[in-house]
Amino acid sequence: MSVSLPPLTVHGNPGGKGAGRRHPGAKHGTRPDPAGRGAVGSALPPKASGKPAQKEKKKGLPKLPPHLAAKVKNPNYDMDQDTSLTDEEIALLEKWKAAKSASNSAGKNRKRKKKLPPGVAEDLSDLAAPPMTQEELDAHPDRAEIDMRRLLLPAGKVPTGVQNFCVFYCPAVLDGWVQQSSPACAAASTAGAWNALLARTRYEPSAATQDVVVGHMEKIVEDRIAAKRAILMRTIPQSELDYLLDKFSSSMLEDGRTPYMWENGDQSKDMIPRLRRIIMDAGLHLKQISNTMALEDAIRKRKGQFTVKNPSREAEDDANAAVEDGVIDDDGEESESGSSQTPWHHLIQLILTLSGHAKITAERPSTSFFGNDGIYQALKMLQNSNPDVAIHGEPFMGKPKERGANAKGDVEIRVQKRDSKRAIAEQWAALREEFMRFNSVLLFHQTNHYSLIFALREWMDPWGNRKRQVLTAKRGQRPTAWIDFTEVRKILLSWTGYKIIRIVRAKPASFVNDWKVGAVVDVHKGPDRIPTPPDAHIKWDRWDHFIPGKYKEQL
User: Fold this and answer.
1) Average pLDDT, stretch 542-547?
2) What is residue 407's DSSP assignment?
3) Would you give the end-to-end CA distance of the chain in angstroms?
């Protein structure tokens, strides 16, 4: 770094040549230094001693854990697309990214505009995270206050030049969401929805946590494994099945892999070739399984399928355990071809389920095995632990399935590419009405991630463009991303598995007295008024007065 010094004032020793003479560049009022160090009051540094001058220590980047350090070394790594990050890891990487940006831009006064993550209309990741535990709350009570102005308003202020501006938010969801401590977004978001519907904050001892839901999901996977084994043992001896699974595990260990764990989407490339290789090498040890594989190949050749297709959707697609060719589908129903599956199909499904078990029981549990079906089953298991509560999940909005308009388990609000502006407006109105119901919470299954919906807002700009946005999380569970409804529709249209899920609490007798979940709406005409949380929540005294008519008969 170059440093510009002021003009020198005095050269040489006062007792030598030039003593008493003022240098032409010297300022008035300077005088020689008796120690021979130049002029007193000048900008000259002291005379260098024999010791080398110590360089100013450069401030380094924050230290990252090994697994994060390995990720950022990859030049193609994009943390905005990495949904496996926990909330703590996101904060650490944001700090590292800011430090690196500051280091790279040292000496530059130009302020760079922050780049928004893909599909995000407004990024709130710079907002301070609230305390996650009671201990943190006691230590930092000031952090419990949410900057509602920054959270809810575009750029922290009511849009100017607009006639009407509305924002809808749910205090119970803001109080009930929990930290995602591993790549288990399905479990963390389910726990947050459960807390909101029971009007529990994340600090209460009785509140659900990610670990609680992960425990239920582990039991779900174990039950599926037992069911698949029981089906297979109708046609395959148990000794052969145990031998095959043992060989499969040991072969992955020999290759330096964790049994039934694949990374970077290589499951589709490795699983079936490895399985076929083990069966062919085993010979008579797997006679019945070998016959099953040969039968499957013969069936495929007769149908004109000369290559064996992996029956799983790119298995690393987060939260998608949906398996093609007939398994429990993404909405929890048996697929049409499930009854005619061959033993080979059941064998593939067993290995996929063992992979799900390895992920959910890992040191950092992952729920990537689970689809929407896993959310519904986890809610049932939570309900079994709380018999006085009736909570269930169901698909609310998404792309309809290809198998017919009246298919069981299809969505209530259907999103399609050919929708008109009027249809899109009706979809938004339906989403808003469902969000405002006092007995439901919305959960968004988006690209490789599950997160809650915390708020909605809409307005029309001075040019007549209608703005409709949803507050959710693209990574972790903290409300950090306002997404345009057009982007929400784009995600829902990309695959039938992506849904907005409605989680409903029924059985009103148990929660009339403690209910405080109803969303709050603020309507503003003009730019001067700012929405603030209500002083008190509405207390429901009569269930019949508030419940929608179409739900009465169901309850």
Assistant:
1) 39
2) -
3) 74
Instruction: Name the residue among 92, 152, 95, 158 with its Cα closest to residue 124.
Output: 152
Tokens of 127: 């907002």
500 vs 118, more confident = 500
pLDDT bin (cut points 50, 70, 90) of residue 194 is: very high
Q: What residue has token string 């209460």? A: 204
CB 174 within 8 A of CB 454: yes
Please report which residue ranges of 140-261 form alpha helices under DSSP H: 148-152, 171-176, 185-197, 210-232, 238-254
Token pair listed for 334: 């048996």
Q: Whole-angstrom Cα distance, residue 122 to residue 411?
A: 29
The Cα 331–Cα 308 span in angstroms is 26
- Report the C-alpha gap between 235 and 362 in whole angstroms: 32
- Contact between 190 and 173 under an 8 Å Cβ cutoff? The reply is no
Q: At a CB cut-off of 8 Å and minimum separation 6, what does 339 contact?
A: none
d(CA 208, CA 187): 10
| Structure confidence at residue 499 (pLDDT) | 96
- Angle of CA points 42, 48, 52, to nearest 5°: 135
CA gyration radius, the chain: 31
Position 522 confidence tier, pLDDT thresholds 50, 70, 90: low
Contact 506, 390 (CB under 8 A): yes
Q: Which two tokens stand for residue 157?
A: 């202020």
Strands 481-484 and 122-123, bridge-based pairing: antiparallel
Pairing of strands 466-472, 455-460: antiparallel
Is the overall model pTM greater than 0.85, yes or no?
A: no
Q: Specify the 3-state DSSP secondary structure of 385.
A: helix
Q: Which residue has the higher pLDDT, 352 or 326?
A: 352
